[in-house]
Amino acid sequence: MCGIVGYVGEQSAVDVVVAGLRRLEYRGYDSAGVAILDGTTLQVERKAGKLANLDEVLANRSLPGTLGIGHTRWATHGPPNDANAHPHVDCAGAVAVVHNGTIENFEELVAGLGERGHARRSDTDTEAVAHLVEECYDGDLAAAVRTVCKQLEGSFVLVVAHRDEPGLIVAARRNLPLVIGLGDGENFVGSDVTAFIAHTRTARAVEQDQVVEVRRTGVQVTDLDGVVVEGETYHVDWDTDAAEKGGYEFFMLKEIQEQPDAVRDTLGGRLTPEGLLHLDELAMSDQDIRGIDQVVIIACGSSYHSGLVGKYAIERWCRLPVHVEMASEFRYRDPVVGRSTLVIAISQSGETADTLEALRHAREQRAWVLAVTNTIGSTISRESDAALYTRAGPEVAVASTKAVMAQLAAMYVVGLYLAQVRGTRDADEVRAHMHDLQEIPDLITELIGRMEPVRELARSLKDAQRVLFLGRHVGYPMALEGALKLKELAYISAEGFPAGEIKHGPIALIEQGTPVVILAPRHALQAKLINNIQEVRARGARTIVVATDGDDSVLPYADDVIWIPDTKSLLTPLLTIVPMQVLSAEVAAARGLDVDQPRNLAKSVTVE
Ligand code: F6R
Description:
Number of helices: 18
Distance between the termini: 11 Å
Radius of gyration: 25 Å
Shape: globular
CATH architecture of the largest domain: 4-Layer Sandwich
Bound molecules: fructose -6-phosphate
Oligomer: single chain
Number of domains: 3
């Protein structure tokens, strides 16, 4: 959480840094701030609330200078007020620091600083770093930062400027993401590449416990002992326009529209001339794939729901047991994984702390870990044995849509590939399933084009107190996803259940008019679902049924119907998810809420 930018170059630093923060705002929006160095004048501006509040402050200020650092905060230590907004400065106002992470020994550090006469002006752990740098600085900022990092416990990305070093910013990282952007006569650091892709596409990831000196003319990376370390650069091919709203009121609405491409690009280039799958990214020999005796999928939130769909596909096609685990619980219960376990870690951001810790645990048990992530160079991709990139492009709205869609596509591909190699599905069947998958992007486009009734429905649900979502088989994970989206965006109490489970307790929640969304595309279990629809309707529910085009069997029991195109039942999540996304976004909009930045959340969840 928290977004960080640093810039040294020839442009107006405040403009570059604030534009970078705008792209990183999805990481946290409790406050924002900048520190700009002009010669030896260091000026800091910061403001509680969204970046727009800082914009207002900056509109009345002149901040000349071509070196700057900036921060957008997701509060951990101290409430989200002006005093706790970053950057934080030392006693003399000579050092400015922005920080992402949690310094676990900060109380001890603060006590020592107090004894040594430093005055504390915020509740944050970060301020301690500014004072420590002040104490350690003797004309070499990078050396001071290295010394301070050795005293810190926990996780951090730090970016530091000092008024006595006009051409330098120093950044450091432990456990959290930091990327360098290498430009022409200008260089950058950022929490991710979106901070600088408007200026350069050449990036380098900073590794654990490294310190970066960034100057206009170049960048030097060292370890904590000051030994220079080389590293590889990579090219970022994300489209800058993809990180802009492009005429949509919200990023989420734009990202929903981009889903056909997310699927197309994720499926693309995976077929041999014979129409079979190749998945070199898995980096496992055919023999090792045949030796897998279980699959464990670890993920959080919506990515966990993609994992659940993956379970249905892999079990069906590969006849392998698949366990899907919430990453935050995984390592604490001594899970049974070993050499012949394939662990799949799904994460859009590639930085989710729970998923990262879970995969580290799996690797310690010698399992083979495949990351399925949207972010090239992310920590999860680098710490896994192999990485399969979903190709959804940058996702800005906090609620994940196109990245989840791409994860679903990736899980089908992984399932089919394992089945192909293990021989549980023959070549013709693999080809047939791939053919069905390749038809999905056009079906999504068609479906998105007929969402007006869903928008109308959303307006009618705007004052609902509670909404239930039911599904069976692959409809169940999508019921969970529909409920999660409605909760996080519209702040309406929403629960997803397997439809057969409702009679074991949740049916007691139903009152006259309680909206119940039932995912009932054409499926072998549909007759049972129709029973469930009748059960809730008999108790007064308003039934909103998601059904396949032309399937009139649901009509007698549905108060509202959302029609979706026909596809194979195992693939229906790729379609049923779309109205769930639109519904939640539109209910939130009808309630006057910020669809892209729901309260209390951040997109990249880098705390456990
Ligand atoms: C919900 C949502 C979250 C994320 C979760 C995992 O709309 O976006 O539930 O899916 O925080 O994030 P990643 O996939 O980045 O690990």
